[in-house]
Amino acid sequence: MLPSVALVGRPNVGKSTLFNALTQTRDALVADLPGLTRDRHYGVCRLGHRPFVVIDTGGIGGEDEGLAGLTARQAEAAIAEADVVVFVVDARDGAVAQDRNVLDAIRRTGKPLLLAVNKTDGLDEAQALAEFSVFGVALTLPLAAAHRRGVADLLETLEPLLPGDPDAVEAEADPDRIRLAIVGRPNVGKSTLVNRLLGEERVIASDVPGTTRDAISIDLERDGRRYRLIDTAGIRRRARVDEVVEKISVVKSLQAIAASQVVLVLLDGSEGVTDQDATVLGHVLESGRALVVAVNKWDGLDAYQREQIRGALERKLQFVAFAPMVYISAKHGSGLRELMRAVHRAFDSATRSFSTSEVTRALEMAVASHPPPSVRGRAAKLRYAHPAGSNPPTFVIHGTRVASLPTSYRRYLENFFRERFKLVGTPLRIEFRENENPYEGKRNPLTERQLRRRRRLIRHVRKS
User: Which pTM value belongs to this model?
Assistant: First the structure.
């Protein structure tokens, strides 16, 4: 396993900016607002001679209650699991009492410590370092993470502190790990579900809507299967999104959907299907990813409420009728076994491989059972089909006059293929291609023959 380095400090000192510089990504949210990061965020730095895991954390050193207290506990967990701690401070603010509180918490763990004095651009570096000498940290470096200045020196200083074999290489990614994004509108219980699946408070779960702001990836092994869970921020309609931070969070959630193989959309059973839920499902449908719908907070409803909500769900979710629906309680853990089984079925269907022969055979059966309708006296002829991709499964059907196929017949073919191959939880895409005319642009040989016969007949008539 790779060694890990935690970036720790009070709010708004540039930890997420440094995280992005080390991982060469834009995975961590960055804005000039304190308290933006709340959960632990992981990435891999491969810039130096030895790769290592980087852990971005929320700001600590202040209040111990509410979201600030939950954020602090996430940072403390990151310190506990890290091999080295990089204590990030703001050169422009100087040494403040809150920094001293953070430093004391780090020192109590006994972990190797490096002090990174950030935001030194435009300042006298020697004077900035001298101001923080009162902390008594032996390894102190100037840094301007926003401009990536000082990153090379930071890596050089970190390398001898990292444990393990210097010649060890990173293990290859597990291709069998299912990438599962958990999405939904704000406050439906996404983080609670992630924590329940993991068996620990890995991400902050709160009744405050919008608690999660970033897309947090977490590896999980459950019942012999491997997953990469992606907890996301709540998605709302664009017209309802005002804050810059929330807009960025929504973009992160949409990126998580695109990077996943299966998307689990979480609904609040006590509220049924709202317009915001339909918006989330629309995003997933556009992405083409496998889909499972989980109705949360089901344990708090009586028999009458459940019957009413089931009926409403069946009516309003007809446009994603292919998706299995599971009723769960993330808080108490009921229904999770059925939920993960639905995820497996959706994953297997979305990633299944097909041969040209079986797809063509299915097409022949569909046409024999229900031929294409005639349009203006002529019907399309569907000749053969072949697979063209997975996640979602895509089939290409070749034939003539395919443009005349009505929408109802195209839908019939989609449903036939879905039932024939027992595809559950995945959308299905069918492309139609018109067969090319091999004589297009050429003279018809029959016409040429007719012309020769006509010329011979004319000559014969003239001679006679």
Answer: 0.59
